[in-house]
């Protein structure tokens, strides 16, 4: 037969049927998710502006290029993206929110699937100068950076230190004679390692270093350092810079290393909004050092959103493919069925559909809390910061871990084809799993949340003012009769969490009684502590989802309201069933109640089945963003897989030169 | 500071200390794992023969090459490997066992980290001709293949069909006039897709196709088909062949696609050991079609071994790195600690150390059962085949899924550095996760085991002869008083499994009562069925581990016996704690018993801590095989990370050409 070429007007007939049987208006859901029809239009026009520009398209799929070629091609595209960003700015359509989306978010990852080497300029360099520079520094540097006269990055992590930033080794020693700081890398482990764009792209960096002045170390501070000559781009004397090599993903982000051999910078290059070093070397400490927490928490809000975005992409791909793929029989005398009809397949897909909503609403909620608390901070009111910090830590940890597991489950649900790069699932996994270790390693973050929980448990005096942990006051001894409702699930999850925290606290006390220091006892109990924190995080996420849906249902059609209710219930039942062991240990729930929950789960899978394709369609993610042979809107899966294979440069010659060089001589020698 | 170069004589001081405090003789454990000192020596000399040959070394790390260059470089190395294999053969040291190890096993994956394009020639092509060809066919083809006059592959999977092989679409229609089969690909989905080496390497293939003769379809059969001209390597007329493109891993295996446009092959190219087509087109069916099960089960034994091997590599890397990496404090006034001292880190590592042993012993046990049952098959005795099939399905599913999760957990336990290609953890994950979908998709396999379990549950008449399921007869109603022992854990896991199978069976019956067909009821209950099968598999693995250690302890030193006992106990406790929910539902275990188990787990982590590095050292895997900057024996982690980065071709120029082409013009235009 002749291999057909793709005709996007021809929609796969299974998808046509799925879309016809959908019980709600998918456009209504799209608008709801975007925050209104106007927002949808804005998004669509931004996507059009970027995605339909031929200058932003790759010449060959990235995966076929060498590592070096990938970098060169992505610098070309990154410059073209920046030009368009500048154009938007000049039209008054700029702003930081847009930058993030264009450089790192859903749109950004469509333009450069494996990362953008210039992203940190807008996402870290400029915001750090804005947040930590004084007025003069802002005037000087933000202008240059905004105009792209310079390209900056942010160099914090070192070969030897990541999440534990107090341990960083790079030094900045003040020399009052010349009014300069001397930057130095005293060890190999003090080399900066990881910053995006540092390898060969940026010519400036914010460098985080231990500040020494008048013979004393004052801890880590940020400095602006020029790395390369602005004209020749050659590294300046004393600057050792290069790229760190290949990674599991993000091979176009040009992550770099950086070492200093006594590099001198002017005193005024230390960012001094908070702490200062005076010309004579006197160190002046700011009273409000907690203010720098803000950026860190902001980044975590963004990461929870990113987790939802990655998961959405994977869930669209896997759901459409499962509607198209026919394989095996349920009844031996009938035809092969859509794999979406296998309950085990639904179980791999639908909980993650509901999780997309759960994480998006969790991110929205965290964003609101963040804005409230930073407002309070400005007026010197710090009481709610620990709770916000605890919530942001656990949300980041839970959303990144669950989204990563989700993307991988969805990839595997596509069988062998999910292993193909042309499915875009392997790359999506490479990006989402990175979130588990960057911006705070997940286990460390869970233990930070656990510390807040144990502290609250030990001293409940202030608890009524802390909405996310208020339940700890009473839930341990509540009598919660079984009920097939989300409200019941929330109360039960809370009681279980309280039970886990209580037990962990007891175990710490026992270990201390047995002669351990509190810190060793904490370490000895840390498996239980992380598990308690995780469950706490999930129970807030279920509650947030519940509150959100109850609000939204007031404004949606009845049909859409029913869909949201199904998704909420599925996420809630799925979450409690993941923790059956703890629930049975710490509440009065019985084995037969678990049976009811399992049946409820199966009912919900069946209820969502007819709307599955409709729901993922509503995410309204363009084919260029999905970038997947398995997930395209038209469903021409096999034609696309075949077409993508044809793009392999190996397929341009029927006989590869290695046949003549190696294989033929070998075959003949054996004759 | 000057960046130091690696001195492998300088062993990292933390590793020196760890090795000094080890309580047992690591060489004793190495010999035990290899099956005796002689086997260890054989392995070591084989490794030396291959790994120290400069002709088998890559010129540049694979990850920096383009997709096409990767292929060309791996064909060069694959030919050199085959030459050495031929040399071994001529010295009488050949044999199929060795081939697998050299081409695909631990050694093979060191020689070609991302797959060998010629592997299927020895691993699938030759064995299939041997297993399914008649005497004449063996005489004709095995000689040619063994001499490497031809290079073969095995083409079964199609774009549209994987695990459900009955659905394959490629046709082989017999034409009695010319005594030929006509091979045809009637649809795009019937194109062969995935076979290794098919793209541009092999010139022959075993093709699995639906056999039509005298107007009737007789199901799938294997045919030998020539694909390319032996001299020019050009595809023969009617053969559409190429490679399928990039994948998550195995980018050097040259996986290909293959379509036929009425390609004629002689009748005698159908492999006819079992079924035959006579010259006039008469189809003659073999009475013993179950014999072909053998190869499939054999492959699964190998996969369980592979799962253990991948896990060993990852666990060595992560354990050594965790002993070397210092980060954060336990007590605020003390120095930063080895991350191996964090209990959460031990919890990420040590259960997977114990799992390496569990899977290796499970593979050994399966291998023995396989040999017994195939022996019985030859004498026409088929009774034990279903049980062996059920065990091989669940072992493959559980070992691949758990090993994949393990490798990924271990990768994440190395923080950001685990994301670096130079850690070799991302590639190891890419290889191990592929096992979840190839050679039978895991969910499908679990359901096959579940079918055997439910059948046995419904009819226990023969159960006393079935050692792996005998427990189902009595364990449901046993009274098992709590006891801190592995024996108790095994009984409790069995009781839990019996409870799950019983409940699933009830749910199927209820659904049938409610009017569903048995098949729909089965599908509706399939989430519970897969979970029951999984637990059944894990309980056999714990039991096998228990029996093996009890035997081994008779021959080992007391010190090594104690270490094996710790590992056994850890695997058992870890396994039962994973299923706490089910255990609480289906047995009399109480919450306070779970407390005891949790504490036991923590005690075992502490007991294994001093021997952790010693145990992974005993796996005795050479640095070339680990291929990891984080895992090398000398522990010079940071020096190696830095050295690997220097190999990036991007680092050979201080200024990349893209600066002049794109970045500089952009920066200037914005001035």
Automatic annotation (TrEMBL), chains A, B:
Stretches assigned to the Acyl-coenzyme A oxidase N-terminal domain: 26-151
Active-site residues, record numbering mapped to chain: 439
Names of required cofactors: FAD
Pathway: Lipid metabolism; peroxisomal fatty acid beta-oxidation
GO cellular-component term (any): peroxisome
Transmembrane regions listed in the UniProt entry: none
Domain annotation Acyl-CoA oxidase C-alpha1: ranges: 293-454
Localization of this protein: Peroxisome
Gene3D superfamilies: Acyl-CoA dehydrogenase/oxidase, N-terminal domain, Butyryl-CoA Dehydrogenase, subunit A, domain 2, Butyryl-CoA Dehydrogenase, subunit A, domain 3
GO BP annotations listed: fatty acid beta-oxidation using acyl-CoA oxidase; lipid homeostasis
Family the entry assigns: Belongs to the acyl-CoA oxidase family.
Protein name: Acyl-coenzyme A oxidase
Organism: Exocentrus adspersus
């Amino acid at each position: 037969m002749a291999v057909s070429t793709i005709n996007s007007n021809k929609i796969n007939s299974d998808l046509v049927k799925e879309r016809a049987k959908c019980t709600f208006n998918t456009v209504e859901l799209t608008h709801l998710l975007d925050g209104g029809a106007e927002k949808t239009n804005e998004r669509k026009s931004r996507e059009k502006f970027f995605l339909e520009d031929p200058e932003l398209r790759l010449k060959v799929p990235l995966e076929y290029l060498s590592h070096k070629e990938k970098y060169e091609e992505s610098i070309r595209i990154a410059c073209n993206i920046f030009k368009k960003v500048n154009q938007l700015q000049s039209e008054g359509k700029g702003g930081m929110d847009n930058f993030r989306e264009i450089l790192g978010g859903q749109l950004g990852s469509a333009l450069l699937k494996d990362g953008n080497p210039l992203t940190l300029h807008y996402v870290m360099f400029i915001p750090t100068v804005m947040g930590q520079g004084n007025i003069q520094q802002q005037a000087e540097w933000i202008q240059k950076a905004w105009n792209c006269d310079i390209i900056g990055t942010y160099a914090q992590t070192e070969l030897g230190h990541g999440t534990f930033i107090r341990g960083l080794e790079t030094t900045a020693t003040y020399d009052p004679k010349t009014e300069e700081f001397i930057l130095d890398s005293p060890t190999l482990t003090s080399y900066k390692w990881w910053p995006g764009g540092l390898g060969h792209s940026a010519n400036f960096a914010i460098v985080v270093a231990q500040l020494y002045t008048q013979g004393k170390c004052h801890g880590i501070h940020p400095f602006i350092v020029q790395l390369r000559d602005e004209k020749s781009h050659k590294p300046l004397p004393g600057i050792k810079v290069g790229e760190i090599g290949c990674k599991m993903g993000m091979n176009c982000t040009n992550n770099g290393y950086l070492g200093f051999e006594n590099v001198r910078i002017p005193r005024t290059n230390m960012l001094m909004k908070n702490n200062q070093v005076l010309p004579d070397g006197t160190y002046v400490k700011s009273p409000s050092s907690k203010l720098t927490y803000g950026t860190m928490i902001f980044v975590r809000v963004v990461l929870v959103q990113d987790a939802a975005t990655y998961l959405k992409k994977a869930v669209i791909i896997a759901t459409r493919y499962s509607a198209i793929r026919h394989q095996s029989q349920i009844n031996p005398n009938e035809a092969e069925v859509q794999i979406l009809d296998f309950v085990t397949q639904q179980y791999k897909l639908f909980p993650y559909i509901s999780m997309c909503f759960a994480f998006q609403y969790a991110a929205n909620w965290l964003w609101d809390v963040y804005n409230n608390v930073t407002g309070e901070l400005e007026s010197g009111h710090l009481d709610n910061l620990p709770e916000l910090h605890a919530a942001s830590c656990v949300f980041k940890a839970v959303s990144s871990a669950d989204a990563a597991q989700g993307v991988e489950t969805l990839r595997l649900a596509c069988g062998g084809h999910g292993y193909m790069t042309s499915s875009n699932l392997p790359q999506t996994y490479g990006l989402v799993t990175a979130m588990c270790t960057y911006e705070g390693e997940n286990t460390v973050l869970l233990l930070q949340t656990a510390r807040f929980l144990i502290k609250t448990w030990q001293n409940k005096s202030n608890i009524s003012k802390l909405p996310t942990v208020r339940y700890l006051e009473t839930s341990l001894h509540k009598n919660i009769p079984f009920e097939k409702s989300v409200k019941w699930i929330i109360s039960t999850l809370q009681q279980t969490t309280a039970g886990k925290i209580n037990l962990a606290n007891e175990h710490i006390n026992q270990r201390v009684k047995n002669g351990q220091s509190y810190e060793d006892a904490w370490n000895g109990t840390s498996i239980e502590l992380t598990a308690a924190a995780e469950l706490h995080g999930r129970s807030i996420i279920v509650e947030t989802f519940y509150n959100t849906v109850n609000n939204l249902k007031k404004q949606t059609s009845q049909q859409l309201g029913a869909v949201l209710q199904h998704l909420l219930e599925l996420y809630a039942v799925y979450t409690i069933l993941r923790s059956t062991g703890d629930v049975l240990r710490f509440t009065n729930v019985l084995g037969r109640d678990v049976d009811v929950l399992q049946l409820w789960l199966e009912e919900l899978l069946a209820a969502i089945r007819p709307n599955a394709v409709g729901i993922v369609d509503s995410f309204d993610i363009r084919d260029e963003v999905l970038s997947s042979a398995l997930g395209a809107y038209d469903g021409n899966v096999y034609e696309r897989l075949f077409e993508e294979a044809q793009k392999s440069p190996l397929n341009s010659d029927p006989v590869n030169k290695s046949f003549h060089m190696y294989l033929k001589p070998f075959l003949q020698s054996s004759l």
